[in-house]
Records
---
Amino acid sequence: MELKITVFKKPATQHYQLLLAADPSKELIDSYLNRSFCYQATAQGQLVGIIILLPTHPETLEIVNIAVDPQIRNQGIGQQLLTFVEKTARNKKFKCLEIGTGSTSFAQLYLYQKRGFRIVGIDQDFFSIHYNKEIIENKLVLKDMLRLKKLL
Ligand code: ACO
């Protein structure tokens, strides 16, 4: 699918629908959006995905949110977003990309490792501590965040 990836500044309802698919806390989303580089992907004028990059440590960008329209997942859009971000981060002279995801997020863990991310740590009880509502994924209660890193 041919995508147009551009910066967006002010999130609309449609952006929030995607953002909340990756991160169920609007409060957390709002805490990182205005400090991040925010990109949207459109296909034939329709919003199909978003990817949000937060500069954390020197030379490091964290992908804090990535989401694709549920109707068109598993068609390579997620990979296109990750490829775009790697290129953009290199152009901006960043040396490292990080991403955190649930220990129960098997499909996401597959995708990130396929793209060369390596697991570097566990943020134990991240989801138990930071989210009021219990999250069930793949029939498991989500408690821990796995941290992954890719050197550019
Ligand atoms: N187990 C293993 N692999 C799977 C599974 C599964 N259950 N489901 C899908 N896959 C594979 C697909 O086959 C595909 O691999 P392939 O290309 O080798 O066949 C791959 O996972 C998906 O690749 P894409 O099609 O490029 O990805 P997609 O466009 O579906 O986007 C994304 C991936 C963004 C994770 C999407 O599924 C999504 O929006 N999910 C909901 C939100 C979310 O979980 N976001 C990430 C949270 S973490 C964070 O935001 C920092």
Note: The chain is about 30% helix and 35% strand.
---
Amino acid sequence: MRTWTRKEKYRTISPDDRYELQNLHERIAQSRWRSTFHVQPVTGLMNDPNGFSWFDGKWHLYYQWFPFGAVHGLKHWYHVESEDLAVWENKGLAMKPDILYDNYGCYSGSAFIEDGTMYFAYTGNNKDVFGQRHPYQVLAWIDEKGELQKLDHPLLTQPEGYTEHFRDPKLFTHDGKYYILVGAQDTQEHGRFLLYSSDQLKQGWKLEGELKVRGYDHFGFMVECPDIEKIGDDWLLLFSPQGLEAEGELYNNKYNNVYFVGRMDFENLEFVPNGPFRELDRGFDFYAAQCALQNQYENKAVLAGWFGAADYTYPATDEEEWSGLQTLARELTIEDGKLIQKPAKALKQLRGRKLFEARDGSIVSDSMHGLMPQTAIMRLDDPDSESIELNLFARSRKNGFAITYDKFRRRLVVERGDLENQCNEEFGSTRTVTLEDGLKSLEIYVDRSSVEVFVNDGEYVLSSRIFPTAGENLIRMGGKNIDLVIYEAVPAVEDSFVL
Ligand code: FRU
């Protein structure tokens, strides 16, 4: 794989780069692993979703972006837009490092809307001449001309007692006050949440203190991308802690994205959870998720996530000089104190031609004839079978990406070890979920290099990247009496070059 010099990695975009990037885009657009209904990098590498919001009649999503290749180089923000959370349009570069406070990258942050203006609170990753990092939480906004402005002073600087790992501000208001929640690492290398408040947006910020979670001291060695959201009467605290130990079925990825449901006590700087934290996603690739700032839904949040994780590599597309995807947008509700995650409603419209249908185990129609479609939406209901097995992108004597369910043990397993192209296999190639109440339904979204499995209409989600080769082109299905429908997926995200 390509090695990057420092200079190449810390290069920012300039108008002269258009042709180079257009060429890069044209080359990667040929890839068999480009998506058709997921947001993907126009060129180079994407990671976290940022500034996710509903504003001016549209959903806006920004992603962490290194334009020039598949490496975590100098981070910019790229903008995509949607009317319905299913069809997304590339809008172009939104933010680049151009001030002292973000000279080594515009890192992750959140959107905030006031008086019809869209603001962003983000982390300016600064490095000094000795290579020492100085993180700043910076405010930016889009002015009347549609141009991005940045405040000339940072809102927050690294506080005493914490290391340079201080980032990913979530700006919000509560009871007439402004708040910023930041991920931090203390000098003992423990992951912490810090809460700041102010009476004014652009100044007067003061550290309230650490936001404690009742029953917990700290979370791993660093907390990234904290987010807090009110859903009905409940609060949701989302974050990406680094350094959790794997425990059986849980926390098997290098880094995991988790949440608490509970109550937020602003006065005592305490989050009171209604139970232990849980993983947002039980697949192989999911991290740094963020809820949208929105007034579209009451009692519902909307979530975007990075279909990847820090320190993972994806050799198949890295070699093609691009990396990363966003997961499908999810609608979040809390039912009986439990988080339910459903694919955004508009994604239903992506069900195209029916390719296969089985009712009570008998095949009603089949135009696939055992050949795996590159994109598909599959729905399985009320299974009454002792075992179920779906092999996607299989070939003879190889199971491809396998989804199996064992009714006796109530165990759902996804497995990608049988595929030719492997990635991050040191973190295992199976993921298992024991379903307390058994399996009632599966909704599966396949988009060339990704599979998202929604279990029991939102009880669990498993998101996994895969890189099937041309020869891995079969689908096999096993199970008695199953009801299964497979649709072709309608393309919803044009792979266009917009800078
Ligand atoms: C999470 C993260 C954030 C940071 C950003 C940099 O993946 O490490 O903490 O702001 O990515 O791209």
Note: The longest helix spans residues 18-28.
---
Amino acid sequence: MSVQDLRIGVIGVGMMGADHAERVVNRVAGARLVAVADPDTARADQLAASFDGVRSIGDPLALVADPEVDAVIIASPGFVHEEQVLACLEHGKYALCEKPLTMDSESSLRLVEAEAKGGRPLVQVGFMRRFDPEYAQLKAMLDSGQFGRTLLLHNTHRNATVPDTFRSEMIVRDSLVHEVDVARFVFGEEIVEITVLAGTPTGVAAEGVLDPQVSLFRMAGGGLVTSEVFVNCRVGYEVRCEAVAERGTVVAGQNSTGIYSTVADERGGYWGGQVPPDFRVRFARAYDLEVQAWVDASRRGEVVGPTSWDGYAATAVCTAGMESLATGLPVKVDLADRATVLGGAAR
Ligand code: ISE
């Protein structure tokens, strides 16, 4: 630890925030966890007490304003992101905000505009797939040109289980949003239209929850993207992406743990591997690289990775996606003009 270490506060210490707090303490160089905040103060107190020199601050906005905090990881629920990111912008603090950036296009756009007005990029959005070594390699291979033009992407996104409070719209806004970012990242262009369809729901989903869902994105350049999101698949966390190009295909996440085993039991001989239980395991390396990149950039006075515009564009697609889920019809994505919004702040 040195005096120049980036002093980090974490807002929201549920599953993801607690994971990031532990990451900052144990696996990230050049950073120091100094504070945590959560409406569940007992949970925040307990987490703070498990590390040396970490304070639990009751009010998240007080954590942002705290002079001892240089930069903030926002891992709270999406409906409080707008005020928390705005507070970071007001105090000139770097923010790594988990997805979704906010709950709807209008509020996400307000954040993009507020950041642009401040004249200094401060926000990175937590789309971690961009930092996953396999997704990064898939992108680099396609960009090399050896496969010709990319025509199609097929995404698979399965969670073992979600709480009953995770409703149909959240499958779009909180889960599919990752595949929205993957499509924009891989193609390097915007999504112009989305269709979200739900068929017969699994019998193990909560009453009224439309799970699984299949979506189709039309990219600005004419490419097509299909995504299956199935959040009660029961097996484990399976996330992969297959790109189909003119002269070949590339798959990321095929065998994500890399473990292959054989076993002899009473049924005979079996072969197989392990499906990771959840995103913290599957994307552990991606999260490490994401947070390290954020820390390094913040210490240099820069922002890397997915921007507030990327967060806004993804929210705009999901806003259209939620409308499509309700009607079953394709919905055009209503996106502001990037050059007009960002002016000289485009990056
Ligand atoms: C969760 O919020 C995530 O971001 C996970 O990556 C995703 O797989 C899950 O479906 C979401 O609920």
Note: Residues 6-129+285-307+339-345 form a domain with the Rossmann fold fold (CATH 3.40.50.720).
---
Amino acid sequence: MSILITNIRELLQVRDSSISKVSGKEMKYLPTIKNAYVLIKDDIITDFGSMNDCQNIFAEQTIDATGKLVLPTWCDSHTHIVYAGNREQEFVDRINGLSYEEIANRGGGILNSAKTLQNTSEDDLYKQSIKRVKEVMQLGTGAIEIKSGYGLTVEAELKMLRVIKRIKRDFPIEVKATFLGAHALPSLYKDNKEGYINLITEEMLPKIANEQLADYIDVFCEKGYFSLDDTDKILSAGKEYGLIPKIHVNQFNTFGGVALGAIHNALSVDHLEELNNDDIVALQVSNTMPVALPSCSYFLSIPYTPARQLIDAGLPLALATDYNPGSSPSGNMNFVVSTACIKMKMTPEEAINAATINGAYAMGISNMYGSISKEKKANLIITKEVPSYNYLPYAFGDNHIDKVIINGKCI
Ligand code: NIG
Ligand code: FE
């Protein structure tokens, strides 16, 4: 099946396929073609260019995109979209004055979600989760990373990862799976952290590797959760099973987790609401992608990741949703891009780069996703008629999406 999209007002993020991420000043540049076309064959972008060069190109289907923009689908490199139930009561508790930490200390937070998930069947968990997966695809997400970490027992962590595997099998969206057994200390181990870490490294990891359930390993490296030593141990064990590290780090405190991620050659370090100069220096000598999660900052009313500081230090930055029931019950990448512009002072060009090519890098898939490049996957957003790409983050409450194409098919 071939599709030709014609008369595109502006085609965004056209790149040579060898570019895997953009950093520092390069992030201010978003390469585009005005009055453009794109040709798709099956699930691949085979050609694109100016309408002036489109005379002899034919396809089985033509889509006229007069007045519309076309851009690559969003690459959401950090989500916990597989979860059971919700936590709207904690939301109300926070409105009434409790902090995220206080709620967690009372047995709420991650442990609350884990209890619900442990009591939910695999089929029910799958059903609850795919509802959200379908929603984010409609919102323009074409590739997504999904973490475990609301199981916290051998059985429940495997249940989560099996659901992620089923989503990967059943949906056209590209899925990467991350094992986050070290998300919180389950109550059963509250006085025996070493015991839980052993459970992760000696029981969970071999089973996960055996069933090939994960690509990445993640740890919530934070005061009251997992220390630098714990994180080091868990990431090292994961690497023995071929899992590439990622870390939740610097959400509330900065104490060397970023440097540890860099030493482990982590693919990404995520959150970074708190950041100091040592963190910046550690990132400057690494290939690790910093990832900001503005909807988490918005929802919890905590600081935003200092994007300007990172980008002005020559670093790359990716944007993701952190979709989860506790700190970001939204998987809307359009909102993330807007919020990055409004609250983090990223330009629209920087935010779009961060949510496409750099997000793809943070999932290890920028060879096939994240830009309009020949031979990359045909994953495209066609917007409604809009005056310019600046309008997308500007009119923050509207849905600007007309069509989403994933793997060459309109969804
Ligand atoms: O990325 N910070 C740790 N984990 C999640 C939130 C977990 C929760 O509250 O359920 C996050 O924000
Ligand atoms: Fe997270």
Note: Residues 348 and 391 are 9 Å apart (CA to CA).
